[in-house]
Each structure stands twice: as structure tokens, then as C-alpha cells.
Amino acid sequence: MCKGNGLTKEMLPFVPGYEFIGRVHAVSPKAEDWGYKTGDRVAGMSLTGGSNSNYFSVPCQRLALVSEGVDAAKAACLVHDYAAALEALLRAKRLAWPELHLEKPAGTRDEPVYPFEGKKLLVTDGHSPAGRAAIDLALSDKFEVYAGVEPEHAPRLRALGVTCFDRDPLPKVRGKMNVVIDNSLACTDFYGSSQVALAEKGGLVALVTADDKSRHSGSSWDGWARKWTGIKAGTFMSRTAFVDAETCFDEGTHGYPRDNLTKSYRKVLRCLVRLLELGKIDPTVAKRVSLDEVPEAQKLAQSGKECGTVVCVP
User: What's the pTM?
Assistant: First the structure.
């Protein structure tokens, strides 16, 4: 970052950190109108960094209240990885079942109804942070889940009822999946093989997160391949959508358009916090590290060897 070789070019001095959980120190009149007060425990995301500092400011529309009994590290997992996975899952459901009016996972309703019970869902990279989040959310919706994973992580997922593949799953799932979430960045065929896995009426979402981009920094995904893949998936491929986690919740800032499918990042985050409080989801914390351990943790995250999310706990 200091050399200007990161995913984004930040103006120095710069304090990193985007996802966070903490307590409100002071509120603006607008935040008071939204129901926030000093001392509230909140989770959220900053678009401009700064959450590794003791104090920083963040718009109230990018926050959600978190109850005292919720594990802070697990709540931190929701802010980016789970939010991106939920958006991808909701879009895939809309593609596969356009007749349904979908706003939130079934388990958040007062009287849960599971219309997706027994439906087949494939996550191509099941041990990455977003992949693990997608699996957790799909299991809460009673999907029959399939995933591509590294062999060392397969036993943990199989214990949850996930069917795991450590090699190309296409021969075994061809034409059988109701939903495919492709988060593997395997763009050699620009998601063509993932679309072949779909059943006659199914939905494919190509999902890219900041963690995925950092792992592939310097590869073809830094340039034309990523742009073309997004255009192809979102425009030319049937029953397919492209979700870039860096921009799908960016509400009109930094030059990106407001996402019409996601009315509010706060709404998504509140939904996820509710699922966590109800015990419907259980985020996997791969490792808890201190601020001094962040450089090594970043290397671990970029290696792609962790199963779940690495969380900094000051």
C-alpha cells in the first residue's frame, strides 16, 4: 500500500481498515434520527478506511446495531463476506425463481417457510471467506449444498452436510444445479463451465470480493479479463448475474452507480445480524489476530489456505 501497489491507490497518510465492530462515541443529529445513541454496539463498513484507528467517523446508513451477546469476531464476518454472499444468493434466487418475491432469507421471517428445501446449490470455492459465507446462508435456507474445496477443509464442510469436490465437479453436477455461485475466479472459460452445471431453470452468479482480488493481484484478473468477464456475465449470458462486492453496496459514491437491486446496505447488514442472533448462521473465523499480526494475517488471507475469515481483534 505504501508503495502504491495495492488494489487501490490511497492518499498518504492513510489508516487502513474497512470492516469493523465497535461502540458509538458520538452521534450526529441525523444518526439520532435513525435511532443511534452514544454507547451503542454497532458493526459496519467504511468506504474510506480508518477502522484500524481508535476513533473514526462513518455514515449511519452503513451501520447495524449488534446485541451484547454476539461474538464480535463473528459479527465482523458479516460486514463484507456475508453481505456479498447474501447479495449473490438473492440475485441467484431471482434468476432461478423469478415468480418469487425475495427480499431476505427464509429464516428471518417470524414463521419461516423454506421454498428452497432440497434444491441444489453449488459454490465453486467453498473454503474462501465469501464461499464459506455462501454455504452457511444456503444451509440456513435448507439448500442441498455442493462445494469445491481444498482437501484439508473438506471434513469440516462434510460434517455440515455439504457434498465436497476437490477436483473439477462439472462431470458430477452437469445440468443438475438450481443455483451456482462461482467465486473461484477461474476465468479460463469465462464462467461457461459453471453455466453448464445449471439445471434447465437455474441461476448463476459470478461473485468477486476484495479478498479474491488480492489473491489474484498481478494476474490477468487485474485487467481486461475481469472487465470482460463482468460484462459477459451481466449482459450476454442467460440466467447469469455478476456481483462485485466492492461496488454492489457502494451507494452512489466514488463514481459508481447506485445498485437498484440492493436498496440499502444497512438493510442487508441488519438482516445478517438478525440471522446471527437467531443462531441461523455461524460464521467461520479462520484466525483471530492482533494489530501487530496483521501483516502475517494478510499473507495468510492472500494464500487462499484459510477456511473462513481472518479477523483482527485489538
Answer: 0.82
